Amino acid sequence: MATGDSSVREPPATPNLGQLVRSGVRLMVWGRSDMGQLGVQALGGSDFLVGSISTPTQLEALKDKDVVGLAGGAFHVAFVTADGELFTAGCNDNGQLGRRTSGGSSSARPTHVTALESYNVVAAGCGATHTMVLTNQGGVLGWGGNEFGQTGCGSEGPDQHHPRPIKGLGDQRVVRLAVGANHALLLTGSGSVFAVGQGSFGALGQGEGLLENRSTLVPVLPLMPLGVVQVAAGENHSAALTADGRLYTWGRGKYGQLGHGDWGNRPRPVLVASLRGVRAKQVSCGGDHTLVLAEAGTGGAGADADSSTCRGLVYSFGRGTWGATGLGSTDNICRPSRVQGLESENVVQVSAGSRHSLALSASHKVFAFGNNDFGQLGLDSDVVPNGRGPATFHSGSGDGLFLASPRRLTSLPAVPVLAVLASGDASMVLLQEARPGEIVLAGPHPGRRAGRHLMPYDVPDLRHLAAAAATASEDARMMRDVVTAVEDVMSSPGYLLALFADGKSSCSTSGSHTGKTALAPSQRSLGAAVTHGSTASISTLEAATTAADSDKAGAEGVGVSGGSIISMPVGMDVSAIQACFEALLRLYNREVVAALGNSLMRLLDAIFLLASTGAVPGSRPPSGSGPGGLGGITGGSGGNGARSVLGATTAASAAGASLRSFGVAAAAGAGDGAGAGDSVASGRLSLLRALFVVFQCPLLSGSGMGLGLSSSLASRLISVTLRLPGDALQLLCTWLVSLPRELLGGRVVRPLQHYLNKLAEGPMAPDGRAEVLAAARMMAGLHAANEKAGGKLPFSEFYNQQLSTHVNLRSEYLLWLEVAGGRSTPPPGSSTAAISQPLVSLCQTPFLLTPEAKSRILQGEAHIQKEAEMNASAREALLQGLHPIYAVFLDISVRRASILADTAQQLASRPPHHLKRPLRVSFVSQGVAEEGVDQGGVSREFFQLLVAEIFQPQYGMFTYSDESRTFWFNTSACLEDGAAGEFRLVGVVLGLAIYNGVILDVHFPQTVYKKLLGEPVGLPDLEEAFPTLGRSLRAVLAMDPDQVEDALCRNFEVQYDYFGEQRTVPLIPGGTSIPVTGANRAQYVQRLVEWTLNESVETQFRAFAYGFHQVCGGPALSLFRHEELELLICGLPHLDFGALEANARYEGGYHRQHPTIVMLWQLINEMDLDQKRRFLSFTTGCDRAPVAGLGALVLVIQRAGPDTDRLPTAHTCFNALVLPEYSSRSKMKAKLQTAIENAQGFGLK
């Protein structure tokens, strides 16, 4: 694998001494040379200038140099050698040759630029009057003409005769350089693009109204999220190619050179929409035209749909005056068109000059087209306009020719071609002599340096780099390379997506721009036969692609089954994401981990900046953000480093914007022309996908080697994510929930819960509370998406115990009532409200609160209501001359034998608001009140006895199902007088129990609790309440449609028993005569479910719900799910006596190790479940555990003196057992058993 940059390398192979001999590289030049720009000297080696050269000529002055880089402007050229030296030739009027003279003279002799001796130059670029070079450290230097600030020195005006580092680069590492006539574009290793120089026509991509020149680097923000791998600059227009093969152009469009279907300028990058579906793999900008090299068979206009091999196709657009577009005419073209003259060739490189173009095929053929005034096409002397072959025309300037269609150069030596360059009105070709048997690939190739910087940058494959570093763990250089690659890739949204994109193409000679070299089988190379001068025996190179790394997902949560790769709807390879993160962390290197964390933080800063400035391609900036949405960011001083610019959250915040710019439709890009809407969508989705990757980073779950990265990364991630508008955030959460269950829980939900835990455990200062609410809002989005997906994770996965324990629930409740009006999030029927607005209270995210916490909120609400009712009743009593003590309680006095009748009578006589008073119950036995004082225990026994009576069969209110072991409303009961009042009483009883914190032993199906909360019910609920009927209806739905009518023999009606009488009810109008068929069976099932669960018991349930909500219909009830409401009413059926023992408290001389206490717990543990329930009822008044389990119940065991024959006693109001110090285990067992079996009543001796 080649990385495309010298700073990221694979481990060196064992050197072959034969390969250390420098290969014979030959540099051939031809074309215009009146200023010495070809570096060709006159006869005798003098510096006399030659006007032009029409045939390829070897540049003798550099024949002993291993030239690897070519660059040329209109009147000067630059050559880079493998040793990092730079040689220049041509015009020096503005000091562009970098020599120590003051300029003003031209030179045809390529001369070493000694001012760069301390630098290792890897690439160069030439403008009209200035020069720039790129060093192996990623730095850029410039010199020459500076009229427009194009040298990047920080000011405009005087020429710069000596190379100087450009300003504004900071610690960014540049990997590609493109120099236009008077402007330049720089591509960094993290995918950011910077511009400098002349801003006319919008060539710097800064946006509307920002066309001024720039003498220091400015970021082209719209390109940041797109993953740019190549930049190109023409005379006044610019282009950028992304890792996924999309092309963006901007600047001058007068001749159609932008390819947007019109002749207008573009001040910011816009997607070339006409190339939609075409995967571009190289772009080159000429004076006023553009060439694009694309893969065949990728779709789009004119693509080969049935191409069995991947070939390089050439598209062109722009000025056709001299035929430089190669389209067979001199018309200007404003949309990309296929160059038909190259259809039969597999093109591997293109190059655009001022008025001509060159193309190189995989079979080492060079084609030229365009202007030939200076012989830059290298045509043979016998080419005349005779009508044969490619179309030829007389040029309008002198006797020269121009070709409007490509023609092959036959005058080149038959040796492999490494690279071609069309510069100004000149042409250059790098050739290499091949040794016998050696295979040399045509064109620039990631595996070698020659011409590498003329092609796109290959994004490092982090997983493969980590694997290489793991095998060479002692190699510090390798680890530094990994750190550098991580810093670059993980801080770039576009590179991140390129690395993890699903279904990457393998038909590119430069791979997929992600560091994976994949060669087309049709690509040809030259071997020994070519060395001998024969082009007829060119052999086909069967290049094999390296097999993908076979480590499957040994990593936690990677869902790979049977070799299949998880492919998400967002086009991301989740397996690759997980494998990459784990490969990096498996290096166990603190520098790598720190680089990963810091890079992701910079990535989030970049997303924040883009969101805050509205710099998504094609979109309008938010109001108040300044011209072009860039505010003061792009106008920063030259001293600011680029990374500080991208991380300028303060400046971004000052812009006063949010990701609302994401919602801008294509129309918002009006004036940008075709592709504006696509640019908006591309930028928006790129940022969302980048966040999708970050959410899966193991660092969020604390896998950071003690560097403390999880909290800071989680905080920044949540902050940035919540700047998304509601619809974008909802989409992101939907993507995250589509992850495999293990990843969703382990990589997303639980790390966020861990972050919430840390926040909850700390002091809840205003800033801390804001972070808690932000994290809760993020969890709200995930919870809503999880519910919409049918509960991929159980709802209990979202409970946060620490938050439920440490937060001030009373304050949250009151704030909820005051600000949010007691509305939880999301309201029924809404999936976006959970995330569209900031939260004010944790009560808006009830899914985070445990049932026990919600129970405390409900009891707190009841306490507030009790206090209000008691105060109102006391005032009313005083006004009537009564003592308040007799008017502030809901007093109920009942006989045990008539508990139901007494309760019904007393509750019916009370006005509804009296039900809000504290309940105080007394029992009467034989006309005398029992001794028990109601501190809670008496009420618990009252409800136990009352509920047991209500469900007795003789009352006929409920029917019991042996199959489901639940009670359901009696369908016939509604027809009897007073039945509605009785059901209201049952609802009041349930409400009073909740209101007063008492657990009941009731057995309703969950359907009842869903209906109480207003949730819809359906067939699954019917299956729970009536299993046999539910299974039958499922069978009907699964039945062969043609057999339904004959098999069922049913109509749209239902029959039910009414005291022995069969009654029939039509399910639809006329249903008694409409048969159930395969076509209408779904309607039949739906109507039968509706009738059974709703319509048949509508009167009964309405009265029941009315009574229930009369007592506890406050806002706090809306916090509960139906499962939690059942738990609140019925308690936990599971009894954990181990937890009860662990939390018990001892008084009166008892302690945990006391012999009596040890005997007691031994006896309890030996009891069966029924006996344990009896013991629990004896000591607490209830045989079920509270919502939080028995661990939340503190059982107090008091010493009642020495050994005695008295029975143990209990104070159920205080959960206290009064236990004498019995002398033996058998005696304790007998006394305890007698007590728990005769525990009804108070004050019994």
TrEMBL record:
RCC repeats lie at residues 25-83, 84-137, 138-190, 191-244, 245-296, 312-363, 364-433. The keyword Transferase applies. The active site is at 1213 (glycyl thioester intermediate). One of its GO terms (molecular function) is ubiquitin-protein transferase activity. PROSITE patterns: HECT, RCC1_2, RCC1_3. Residues 911-1245 form the HECT domain. It holds the Pfam family WD40_RLD. InterPro entries: HECT_dom (IPR000569), Hect_E3_ubiquitin_ligase (IPR035983), RCC1-like_dom (IPR058923), RCC1/BLIP-II (IPR009091), Reg_chr_condens (IPR000408), Ub-ligase/GTPase-reg (IPR051709). The keyword Membrane does not apply. Keywords: Repeat, Transferase, Ubl conjugation pathway. CDD domains: HECTc. One of its GO terms (cellular component) is cytoplasm. SUPFAM superfamilies: Hect, E3 ligase catalytic domain, RCC1/BLIP-II. This is HECT domain-containing protein. It comes from Volvox reticuliferus. The lineage of its organism: Eukaryota, Viridiplantae, Chlorophyta, core chlorophytes, Chlorophyceae.
